[in-house]
What we know:
By secondary structure, the protein is an alpha/beta fold.
Amino acid sequence: xxxxxxxxxxxxxxxxxxxxxxxxxxxxxxxxxxxxxxxxxxxxxxxxxxxxxxxxxxxxxxxxxxxxxxxxxxxxxxxxxxxxxxxxxxxxxxxxxxxxxxxxxxxxxxxxxxxxxxxxxxxxxxxxxxxxxxxxxxxxxxxxxxxxxxxxxxxxxxxxxxxxxxxxxxxxxxxxxxxxxxxxxxxxxxxx
Length: 192
């Protein structure tokens, strides 16, 4: 299985990057190949611009979008790794999703809105959160955010097998962080 890991964090020494490295190690230990897409390091432009519009009228997609789509087409599992910002994705990753998962490539909202046009894949989200997940579950905010990610995006991505890991307490003690890194490794190893 080939795994594409898309990272959205500006600092290469961030805990988000550490989690993706451990996830990749787990996937490789299970015999999978891994490819990284570090959106900040690669300078991906998340802005929706006039060049993005023609694709909605069966016109061409911009070259940077086609390159990202080719990465996705190569993978059997896609992992999105990002810190939790205001119960959502950072703007860079949201812009990547908006520009890359396009109408008539990923989904068709008119003819068959409940089915992705992409082949089935495993979808993973690694989401470090500074706060402990107790607050996340206590207020049902986790349920709401996960439902939005599930029904508002992952379903359109062709992810029949969805694994969302909100890793709370990422700003905690070294022991807590080691536990979260172990969870990321286990998630990579459990890909199948």
